[in-house]
Please model this.
Amino acid sequence: MTAQIFLQIVASGLLMGLIYALIAVGLSLIFGLMDVVNFAHGEFMMLAMYAVFGAVVIIGIDPLMAMPLAVAALFVVGATAYLGVVQHAMRAKANIGMVQIFATFGLAVLIRGVSQFLFTSDYRNVPAERNLLGGKTIELGGVFLPLPQLVGAGISVLAFVGLWLLITRTDFGKALEATREDAGAVALVGIDKNRVFTLGWGLGASLVGLAGAILAIFYYIHPDVAAPFALIAYVTVALGGFGSVFGALVAGIMVGLAEALTATILPPALKSVGIYALYLGVLFIRPKGLFGSL
Amino acid sequence: MLLEVRDLTTAYQGLVAIHGISLDVKAGEIVAVAGANGAGKSTLLKTIAGAERSRSGTVTFDGRRIEGEPGHLITKAGIAYVPENRRLFPRLSVRDNLRLGSYLFRGKADREEPLTGVFKLFPRLEERLPQRAETLSGGEQQMLAISRALMTRPRLLMLDEPSQGIAPKLVDEIFDAVVAIREAGTTVLIVEQRLSEVLAIADRGYVLQTGRVVITGSAQEILDHTDVRKAYLGV
Model:
């Protein structure tokens, strides 16, 4: 393997890895907050992609400009999912874990079904003439860097920095941490746990919404688009440790690198093999994930 | 009257835990609630704090009915509650636990000011600020739990068995602190099994038995009561 190929693998893996990390972090955040696995996480991402597509086609803005819209829309989707579905599932008297799984899984089926009905199953792309970054690549010392991934990875880094500041520097961040420590005790200091859960779902959905908005720049859009990404997100979260934000970042990058490496040395059809091999390997050695506290 | 409880009944997992309890707390008092295990002391505080739902009866705080309200609104109304198991945020630092206590206040001055009082009360907490709450000793955790409650600037502080599971030397320190808290203007409702110690600092008391008030009066009256002397003091 030449140095150039090695650099290309690292660059491609890092760029996609940062985007995978951004897809996964909202899932991890929500799980850490309330021990609920959101099986509609991928569908949230798909909705964000359609939000960007819609904004580009209807309003006529560049997908980059549509990102804040998608993030805001997904905040509403996440908060509504908590208030409308998850909150009620958590009041189950028995089998609460199962009820939660089926509630979010049912939500996923519903979102996908409604999307198929409204948007049809056609594959769509953001129109090239309105896509500033789409299809552009820059070359740096023989290493090719697709511009959408490069910008997307940069946005992901900014989002992680912002999330870190939010968690460590703000009162809301402290309320989030306190709620994940002991949701039953936050009322003692006057915090409404339902409000924290609602905002937490909004935040988690916003983050995957941002990831979806980035993907919409360079990936086709259809109602089932999220399935492979969601699978990778679950692997990423399990690898990084359920509930760990930093773990999601590290694991996302590892997954990206593993995929880039496999895609280079194995036939393209087998490009996901590396991800799952890595996943199995880590779970054999450290079942709670790299930074998990389970 | 700061707190008026009337005919309060709460069922816990289908069993009636407290049965028609009435109790008053005047502003500036220390009121003790005593009784054996399972007498309903903790359930009484939980119900007032909104952690448990009452089946019937009323709770009036400062002229306003609060029964059935969620816990965070009761904290906001001015009742701070330190439960039996303290419920600190174990992996957060002592500083963060205290900061969360003043979550309801926005101004920096409002948030920092109660800290001075807390450090005067429990100087050793100031040395422990960066430590995780879970690394504190039982007594220190109790101090932190009381301090976190005081950070909400309550008008009524409710303590559930503050002496439980802590070293005897620290028990005195906690009881001294309760007296100091009252001196500083906060009313205290305290649940305790250590009858003679708590009555030594309380103005009035209630003795519960199987979910009902069986004896009530001034601290001295309760100490002098024949049944109490037989059942609790062994004389």
In short: Chain A touches chain B through 17 residues (CB under 8 Å).
